[in-house]
Write a structure and sequence with these properties.
Mean pLDDT: 82
Helix content: 55-70%
Distance between the termini: 15 Å
Structural class: mainly alpha
Strand order of the largest sheet: 1-2
C-alpha cells in the first residue's frame, strides 16, 4: 500500500501516518526504488492498534507505549495490556464505591458508626489509592472534613468523611475539577440532592466501559502483529 492508501483505511492524514512511523508507533515502512513508502498488513494492524489504544488511554500515552509493545515479546505486551485493564477496573471500583458513599451520606450512618472502624489519613489514602497529600488538599478545599483527637490533633476519618472522600476520589479520577465536586458535596450536605453526582458517576462508568472495549480492540490488533497470525500482505478493504 501507498501512504495515501493506508491513510484512507485508518482515517488518518498521510502526514499523521508518517509522523507515527517516525515515532516508532508503527514499524518502518519498506522503501521502493523511487523512494516512496510501501506499507503492509502489519502496518495497518499497528495503526489500528494505536487508534484503539489512544481511545483507551489517550494519544500521548499510546504513542509512548506502542513502540514498547511492538519491540517486546508477546508476554511483555500481554502484561502491559493487563496492567491497563487493572487500572480501568480500579477506576470502576472507585466509582461504585462512590455511589455507595452517596447512599451512606444520605442515610447519615454516622450515629451508628463504630469508632473502631474510623480510618487514619494513611489508611484512607491507601484504600482510595491516592496520596495523603491529596486528602490534605481536599480538606483545605472543604471537600472532606476529618475529625481530630483533642490530644494529638491526629486526623480520624469517620463514616461521613470516608463516604465523601470516596465520592471525591471517583470524580477526580474521572477528570472532574474541584469546583463542581465541591458544589455536589454542598448539595448533599444541605439538601441531600444526588442527581448531579449520580449523573457524573454514571457517565464515568460508561466512559470506563468504552475504554475497556477499546483496549480489547487494541489487544486484538496487537495479537495479530506479535504472533504473526496474519501472514499475507495482500490487503482487503473492510
Amino acid at each position: 500500500m501507498t501512504t495515501a492508501a493506508i491513510s484512507r483505511l485508518v482515517g488518518y492524514s498521510t502526514q499523521q501516518v508518517r509522523d507515527l512511523e517516525r515515532l516508532g508507533v508503527i514499524p518502518s515502512a519498506e522503501r521502493r526504488a523511487n523512494g516512496y513508502r510501501r506499507y503492509h498488513r502489519a502496518h495497518l494492524d499497528a495503526l489500528r492498534a494505536y487508534r484503539a489504544l489512544a481511545a483507551a488511554i489517550g494519544p500521548v500515552p499510546a504513542r509512548q507505549l506502542m513502540p514498547k509493545l511492538l519491540s517486546g515479546s508477546v508476554e511483555d505486551a500481554a502484561e502491559k495490556i493487563d496492567d491497563l485493564h487493572v487500572a480501568i477496573a480500579r477506576g470502576r471500583a472507585l466509582v461504585r464505591e462512590a455511589l455507595r458513599g452517596l447512599d451512606a451520606i444520605l442515610e447519615d450512618r454516622t450515629a451508628v458508626f463504630n469508632d473502631r472502624d474510623a480510618m487514619t489519613i494513611g489508611e484512607l489514602a491507601s484504600a482510595l489509592g491516592i496520596r495523603t497529600s491529596a486528602l490534605r488538599h481536599w480538606e483545605a478545599e472543604g471537600l472532606v472534613s476529618p475529625d481530630r483527637t483533642t490530644a494529638a490533633r491526629v486526623r480520624s476519618y469517620g463514616a461521613r468523611a470516608i463516604s465523601e472522600a470516596r465520592v471525591v476520589a471517583a470524580l477526580r479520577v474521572g477528570g472532574y475539577p474541584l469546583p463542581p465536586i465541591s458544589r455536589i458535596l454542598d448539595q448533599l450536605r444541605s439538601r441531600g440532592l444526588t442527581a448531579e453526582a449520580r449523573r457524573l458517576l454514571d457517565e464515568r462508568l460508561r466512559e470506563l466501559t468504552r475504554r475497556s472495549v477499546a483496549l480489547l480492540d487494541a489487544a486484538g490488533h496487537l495479537h495479530a502483529i506479535l504472533t504473526g497470525a496474519r501472514t499475507s500482505d495482500r490487503m482487503e478493504v473492510p
